[in-house]
Amino acid sequence: ATPAATMVGSTIAARNGVLFEGGDVLERVREVDAVVFDKTGTLTEGEMRLTDVEAIGGAARADGGAVAEPAPEESFVLSVAASAESGSEHPLAEAIVRGADERGLELADVTSFENVPGKGIEATTDHGDVLVGNRALLTANGVDPDPADGTMARLEREGKTAMLVALDGAVVGVVAAADTVKESAKATVSDLTGRGYDVFMLTGDNARTAAAVAEAVGIDDGNVRSEVLPDGKADVVDSIQADGTRAMMVGDGVNDAPALTAAHIGVAIGSGTDVAMEAADVTLMRSDPADVLKAIRISRATISKVR
Ligand code: ADP
Ligand code: MG
């Protein structure tokens, strides 16, 4: 495109909340043939709320013995989880702490706390040693997650993010949080698919939750990449691009920055972090997935003007 056409395109885009990081980006956007969406905060609002608290009894202990005592009270499970999560800024942690607060529960003191990216948290509290997170977190700590399998599966099929709560080496319960799919997500996916773009969803969330959300927005099962660790997102983009596909990666989080860089075009969505915006070629100020279409349309229009 001529510098003048590029300037016009960029100005129109900016007025629509679509910021291109330079004129060459405006030209490269139209080369894209696949769009990869991060799930949380991109396709969904990213505002988690606590939906379920379940107590699990008779859990197997890390040392192989069985716990004889009956299942704890649900309020105890929530108090244990919320106390341990009180030092975390993860959206899931905030949902748990808010949920406990709304139920008027007292939180225990925390003496140590560690964040395990993509898995959960480990904390020592007045309740004891606590883990809150996914199966991988428990397994890595020698705690058997199996007693909660049925409960986890049921909640995950509902599209919720279910988290195991372990206390002193045994599962004591499950807490779940859910997010709302953004209003324009489904229409955007079907519009992109209709125009011939291959649409993918990428998430650190487990396979069942991912499948439920993908189904809600109309993304094909085979195009879902779940349980991706923060460091693995760029690798997933690379693998999608391995056959020459040019991917646009749309994400919002700190974790997403390497994936945005790996993609042919990296798009940071609105409410995202500064880190994501720095790594991005395009920023969508309105946090609306439909603006992906706007960016593509403006790019194509700008090009065709000079042809
Ligand atoms: P996403 O890719 O959706 O942003 P993350 O990579 O942050 O997800 O987390 C992946 C998974 O790890 C979550 O679905 C959850 O099971 C677990 N997890 C991460 N952080 C926490 C936390 N603070 N508390 C409980 N579980 C967590
Ligand atoms: Mg995220």
UniProtKB/TrEMBL annotation:
GO terms for biological process: copper ion homeostasis. One of its GO terms (cellular component) is membrane. It comes from the Archaea. Coiled coil: none annotated. One of its GO terms (molecular function) is ATP hydrolysis activity. Keywords: ATP-binding, Hydrolase, Membrane, Metal-binding, Nucleotide-binding, Translocase, Transmembrane, Transmembrane helix, Transport. Its main location: membrane. It is found in: Endomembrane system. Belongs to the cation transport ATPase (P-type) (TC 3.A.3) family. Type IB subfamily. This is P-type transport ATPase (Probable substrate copper/metal cation). The gene is copA. The chain holds residues 479 to 785 of 852 of the full protein.
